Amino acid sequence: MDAVALFRLLLIEHELKEREDVLEQVDIPKLVLSLDGVGAVLDCVMDGNQRRIGQVAALRLCQKLIDLGEIEAARILFEAAEPLDWLSGSQPVQTASGRSDVLKHWVKCAYYFRSLEVVLNAIKALMAENDPIRTGI
C-alpha cells in the first residue's frame, strides 16, 4: 500500500469518527417525536420488543412521552429499558462506570407503571458492585 492510500484511509477514519461524535450529541428520538409523532419515534427506537437505543436514552424518552400524556407508548419503552438484572438482584449495580443514571431515570418513570410495593421491593433487591454486606467480605 502506498503512502497516499494510507493517508486517505486515515482521513476517512477520522471523518467517520467525527460524524459519529456529532450524531451522539444529537437527540434523534426527540427530533423524530417532534417532527413525526409518537408512532414514528417508537418505530425509530424499537425493533419489535428490543431497544435500538441505550437504557438511559430510552428512559429519558419514556419520561418525555409521559409528560406528553402518551402513557401506552411510554409503557412500551419503559418495559424494554427496565434494568431487570439489577432490580432482581442477580447483577450488581455498576455505579463506578457511570451507569447509575439508569436507576435515576428508572425511578422517575417506575411509579407510573409499577405499584409502590413493587418499586420498593426492587430497590431492596439492588446490590452494589462492591457491597461488603451482601458479598460477605
What's a quick, concise take on this entry?
The protein is mainly alpha-helical and 137 residues long. It has 9 helices and 2 strands; from the N terminus they run αααββαααααα. The protein folds into 2 domains: 1-81, no CATH class; 82-137, no CATH class.
Keywords summarizing the entry:
137 residues, mainly alpha, 2 domains, two-stranded antiparallel ribbon, 9 helices, 2 strands, flat
Rounded to the nearest angstrom, the distance between the terminal CA atoms is: 56 Å
Q: Give the overall form.
A: flat
Helix segment count? Answer: 9
Order of strands, main sheet, comes to 1-2
Q: What's the Cα radius of gyration?
A: 20 Å
Tally of DSSP β-strands: 2
Structural class of the helices, strands and pairings? mainly alpha
Strand percentage lies at: under 5%
Domains counted in the coordinates: how many? 2
Low-confidence stretches: none
- Whole-number average pLDDT? 84
Name the helix and strand elements from N-terminus to C-terminus, one letter apiece. HHHEEHHHHHH
User: Helix content range of the residues, please?
Assistant: over 70%
Biggest β-sheet strands, sense, barrel? 2 strands, antiparallel
